[in-house]
């Protein structure tokens, strides 16, 4: 059936379109075929099963394909390049996984960059793969050459000790050598790409950054600096920055060359410091050379013809400092000295320096004498040593001269002193002996021979042990002494020993021992000095006995002071009672008389106590003075009996007196002899019970006049007899005793009797058996004086009434002045009184006194000064000046001549009457 025209038209049109499309496809196919044929890139198309679909002609050389290979699997083909991962990579691409291009090379050395991409269609995203092989042989060879060059460069840079790196414009590392890694202790991977500041540290980066910026600006630089690197401390580096320029001149970075010059810089600084030190040492040596106290001489030629010396050397030789002192030099004839050794003059070639330079050996301790033209001689000690160069050849000499003149003279004096010392030691009373650790004698002085009796020859053959110096009873203390010294416990000691002499006698010796040790502390010897102190020991024993006696005397003194207080209070009590009675105003005359008698009697008792004390003091000082004259001992005995008459009658004693009718002449002081006799009689009356018997006998004896006083009283114990004549000593008594006394009576008796050349003895059969005192005095052999009538008249006239006188009383005690004034006024004299010396001197010119009673102790100026000033007054010749003091006239010394008389306080009526007469 015939088609409709419309449909035919559509078919014709469609056919035309298809024809046109077919033509286009043919053209496209032709274009694609031409493209593939003209492409030089080997390209291989594979289907999803990796079978050959198509390839370009350039692929034939790689895969050796022929037309019948279309449809064959790729794995069945053989190819002439190494690509073991080709199939695996193709499978990955088919799976939709992209793979990186790979470099493959043929056996002929051609290199290709293999890429695998998916073959995509509109209907199928991956419908196979396309493999291309881009030729890269030339580039690869260039890369390999470049890599080889880089390896060579790195080996070179790594071998260099300097730090080499490249830094880009962002200041990051792009290259570094091995030294860089060693310096910072980092791997290359830890450095490349890192900022410079991170590697070298902020401190070093801050110092280097300005130079880095200048390098990026195209300016290179080189500098040295001490840079701190983190982790490596401070290092001294020489740093060079080199800009990295491209062909167009653009700077893309810079190269850094760092050389560690720390050791070199330190070596330079060390060298500089050593040079400075050497210069300082040279200056010091020069200063030492100039300031040395010994002479130093330098000879810089082998013959020592030209020498240099220091200041001390010039002074020793008496030359100027810049003179040539060489006796071998050209100026030797002008030198005004000669040199001697052992008395012989030395030639110039025999001098120490010339000799040392000639033989090449040192000369030490060479003694020489230098004699100057004016006769001065100096003793010198010379030393010399040759100077050698690096080859060991002698080129000169150095010499030293020490002036030992003073030392030599001192040694001579020392030897002489030692000799004198030995003579002194030999003559000294101190025994000197030196002994070893085993006590063997090493040295024995003459004094030791005198002290111990052993001769030096005998002693040197023995020891302290076998000489028997230490008896058996002191051997233990001797062993302690030796052990302490030898054992090193002490270096010296001092001890007292009883020693035995050769003749067997013993002596006390005071030993002073000293240990001598050597430099290693070993004992060399022990020196002992022994002094005979036997007399001192005896004296010490005597002193100990005296000390005991003094202690006993002190005890007796204390007892005496207690007794003195008691004895002084005893008479004060009745005086106080009598005064109280008078104060009551009782008009009974009998009571008044009783009170006056009590006061008078007790006052006399107090005076007696005080006089006894003063007499003992005078006798002790040796200041008592006797008024010696011819005396009748019988009359003096009667006077003594009158003194104790009241006491004898009060106690009811019977006194039996036997006195020759003729005088018994003796020479002595009447007052003191009466004092002696009355003291003896007083003791007999005191220590004899009431109603006792006292026998008093005076008789001539072969030894002189003898007075015996014997009583039947209390007697004396035998143990008290030895101390009866000592001061402050009494026999035993109880607190209830009524006798009183100070225990001074017998002391005074013995002292006064001794002063008269007599003797006193006391005997007693014992307590309760009475006692006997015997006094013996030398008889006076001179004829008795003729007492004429005229003398009697004079004595009678002296007793006439004393005329009225003007009397000045000077005393700082108002009561003494008042009492004395009342007494003198009662005697009919005109009296004035003042309390000070100045007032007395002022009153003398107005009052014009006949008599001045002057107290010595005054508040303003003392009585002695008043007496001195009175001498200058014209009124002094008409004044009788009497010193009134509690001390004896001897206490005034030479000042006693300023006074006409002296009164002891208290001065009684009789004393005043005597000075008034």
Automatic annotation (TrEMBL):
Enzyme Commission number: 2.7.13.3
Domain Histidine kinase: 563-781
CC per GO annotation: plasma membrane
Membrane-crossing segments per the record: none
Upper lineage: Bacteria, Pseudomonadati, Pseudomonadota, Gammaproteobacteria, Chromatiales
Native source species: Thiorhodococcus drewsii AZ1
Superkingdom of this protein's organism: Bacteria
CDD domains in UniProt: HATPase (cd00075), HisKA (cd00082), PAS (cd00130)
Protein name: histidine kinase
Coiled coil ranges: 8-35
Residue(s) carrying 4-aspartylphosphate: 855
Domain PAS, first and last residues per copy: 149-219
GO BP of this protein: regulation of DNA-templated transcription
Residue ranges of every copy of the Response regulatory domain listed in the record: 806-917
Keywords: Coiled coil, Kinase, Phosphoprotein, Transferase
Molecular functions per Gene Ontology: histidine phosphotransfer kinase activity; phosphorelay sensor kinase activity
Catalytic activity: ATP + protein L-histidine = ADP + protein N-phospho-L-histidine
Residue stretches making up the PAC domain: 364-416, 492-545
């Amino acid at each position: 059936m015939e088609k409709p025209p419309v449909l035919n038209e559509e078919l014709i049109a469609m056919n035309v379109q298809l024809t046109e499309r077919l033509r286009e496809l043919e053209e496209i196919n032709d274009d694609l075929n031409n493209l593939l044929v003209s492409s030089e890139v080997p390209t291989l198309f594979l289907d999803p099963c990796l079978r050959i679909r198509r390839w370009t002609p350039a692929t034939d050389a790689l895969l050796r394909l022929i037309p019948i290979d279309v449809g064959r699997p790729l794995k069945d083909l053989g190819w002439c390049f190494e690509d073991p991962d080709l199939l695996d990579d193709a499978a990955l691409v088919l799976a939709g996984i992209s793979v990186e291009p790979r470099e493959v090379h043929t056996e002929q050395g051609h290199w290709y960059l293999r890429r695998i991409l998916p073959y995509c269609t509109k209907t199928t995203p991956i419908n196979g793969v396309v493999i291309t092989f881009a030729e890269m042989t030339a580039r690869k060879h260039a890369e390999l050459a470049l890599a080889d060059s880089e390896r060579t460069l790195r080996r070179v840079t790594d071998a260099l000790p300097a730090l080499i790196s490249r830094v880009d414009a962002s200041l990051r590392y792009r290259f570094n050598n091995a030294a860089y890694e060693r310096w910072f202790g980092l791997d290359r991977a830890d450095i490349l790409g890192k900022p410079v500041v991170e590697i070298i540290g902020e401190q070093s980066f801050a110092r280097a950054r300005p130079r880095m910026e200048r390098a990026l600006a195209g300016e290179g630089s080189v500098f040295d600096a001490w840079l701190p690197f983190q982790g490596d401390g401070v290092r001294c580096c020489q740093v060079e920055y080199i800009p990295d320029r491209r062909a167009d001149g653009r700077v893309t970075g810079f190269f850094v060359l760092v050389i560690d010059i720390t050791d070199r810089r330190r070596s330079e600084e060390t060298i500089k410091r050593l040079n400075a030190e050497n210069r300082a040492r040279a200056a010091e040596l020069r200063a030492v050379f100039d300031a040395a106290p010994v002479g130093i001489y330098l000879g810089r030629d082998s013959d020592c013809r030209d020498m240099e010396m220091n200041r001390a050397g010039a002074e020793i030789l008496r030359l100027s400092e810049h003179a040539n002192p060489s006796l071998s030099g050209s100026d030797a004839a002008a030198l005004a000295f000669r040199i001697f050794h052992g008395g012989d003059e030395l030639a110039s070639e025999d001098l120490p320096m010339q000799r040392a330079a000639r033989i090449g050996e040192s000369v030490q301790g060479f003694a020489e004498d230098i004699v100057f033209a004016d006769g001065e001689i100096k003793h010198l000690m010379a030393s010399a040593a040759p100077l050698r160069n690096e080859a060991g050849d002698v080129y000169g000499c150095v010499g030293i001269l020490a002036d030992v003149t003073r030392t030599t003279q001192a040694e001579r004096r020392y030897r002489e002193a030692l000799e004198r010392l030995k003579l002194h030691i030999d003559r000294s009373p101190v025994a000197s002996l030196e002994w070893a650790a085993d006590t063997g004698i090493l040295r024995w002085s003459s004094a030791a021979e005198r002290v111990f009796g052993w001769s030096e020859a005998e002693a040197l053959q023995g020891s302290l042990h076998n000489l028997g110096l230490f008896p058996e009873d002191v051997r233990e203390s001797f062993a302690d002494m030796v052990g302490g010294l030898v054992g090193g416990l002490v270096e010296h000691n001092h001890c007292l020993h009883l020693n035995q002499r050769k003749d067997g006698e013993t002596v006390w010796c005071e030993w002073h021992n000293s240990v001598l040790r050597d430099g290693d502390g070993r004992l060399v010897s022990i020196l002992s000095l022994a002094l005979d102190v036997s007399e001192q020991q005896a004296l010490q024993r005597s002193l100990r006995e005296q000390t005991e006696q003094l202690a006993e005397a002190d005890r007796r003194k204390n007892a005496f002071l207690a007794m003195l207080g008691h004895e002084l209070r005893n008479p004060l009590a009745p005086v106080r009672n009598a005064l109280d009675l008078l104060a009551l105003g009782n008009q009974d005359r009998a009571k008044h008389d009783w009170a006056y008698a009590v006061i008078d009697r007790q006052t006399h008792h107090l005076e007696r106590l005080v006089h006894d004390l003063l007499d003992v003091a005078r006798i002790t000082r040796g200041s008592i003075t006797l008024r010696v004259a011819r005396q009748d001992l019988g009359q003096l005995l009667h006077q003594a009996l009158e003194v104790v008459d009241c006491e004898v009658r009060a106690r009811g004693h019977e006194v039996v007196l036997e006195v020759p009718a003729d005088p018994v002449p003796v020479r002595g002081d009447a007052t003191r002899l009466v004092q002696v006799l009355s003291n003896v009689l007083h003791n007999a009356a005191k220590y004899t019970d009431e109603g006792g018997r006292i026998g008093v006998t005076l008789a001539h004896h072969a030894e002189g006049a003898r007075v015996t006083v014997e009583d039947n009283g209390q007697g004396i114990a035998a143990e008290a007899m030895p101390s009866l004549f000592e001061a402050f000593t009494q026999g035993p008594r109880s607190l209830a005793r009524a006798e009183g006394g100070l225990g001074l009576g017998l002391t005074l008796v013995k002292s006064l009797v001794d002063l008269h050349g007599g003797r006193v003895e006391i005997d007693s059969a014992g307590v309760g058996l009475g006692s006997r005192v015997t006094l013996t005095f030398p008889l006076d052999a001179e004829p008795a004086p003729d007492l004429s009538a005229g003398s009697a008249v004079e004595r009678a006239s002296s007793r006439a009434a004393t005329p009225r006188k003007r009397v000045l009383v000077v005393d700082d005690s108002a009561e003494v002045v008042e009492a004395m004034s009342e007494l003198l006024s009662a005697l009919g004299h005109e009296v004035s009184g003042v309390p000070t010396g100045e007032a007395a001197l002022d009153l003398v010119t107005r009052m014009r006194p006949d008599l001045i009673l002057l107290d010595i102790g005054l508040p303003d100026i003392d009585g002695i000064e008043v007496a001195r000033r009175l001498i200058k007054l014209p009124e002094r010749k008409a004044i009788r000046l009497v010193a009134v003091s509690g001390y004896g006239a001897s206490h005034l010394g030479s000042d006693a001549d300023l006074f006409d008389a002296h009164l002891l306080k208290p001065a009684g009526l009789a004393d005043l009457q005597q000075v008034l007469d």
